[in-house]
Amino acid sequence: MSNQAIFLPALVMVALTIVVWFRMYFMRVAQMKRDRIHPQAVASSAQSAALLTDSRAADNFRNLFELPVLFYLALVVAAVSGLVTGTLLVLAWLFVTLRVLHSAIHCTYNKVMHRFKAYLAGGMVLWAIWVVLAVGLLR
């Protein structure tokens, strides 16, 4: 199996991050125009929190730099160590699918329990990826 195949899920995660970034940008600019908020009025995170009322996309954008950081590292470890397997690829794609679902929920209707279930499932998949890697590295 090609080690390069493991980077395709990473490309999709990057694409997801870009999509959420654009959603955040357009939502913020639209609100700032609509509410006539001067850019300097939201110079700090405290000011932004007080004035920008819809933080769904911004919150999700920050989430994409939490657990996914360990996902990206896992993919690099798998490729460098020659541990890319069909199982690891399936787990990587499952993680990406769950992150897309989490982002879709978070950036739209934002029902917390739906979002939490997607987050929890994605976290469990990520831990499974690391267990597979640990077993492979310790052999």
Automatic annotation (TrEMBL):
Keywords: Membrane, Transmembrane, Transmembrane helix. The chain crosses the membrane at residues 6-26, 69-96, 116-138. One of its GO terms (cellular component) is membrane. SUPFAM superfamilies: MAPEG domain-like. The keyword S-adenosyl-L-methionine does not apply. Gene3D superfamilies: Membrane associated eicosanoid/glutathione metabolism-like domain. It is found in: Membrane. The keyword Transmembrane applies. InterPro entries: MAPEG-like_dom_sf, Membr-assoc_MAPEG. This is MAPEG family protein. It comes from Lysobacter concretionis Ko07 = DSM 16239.
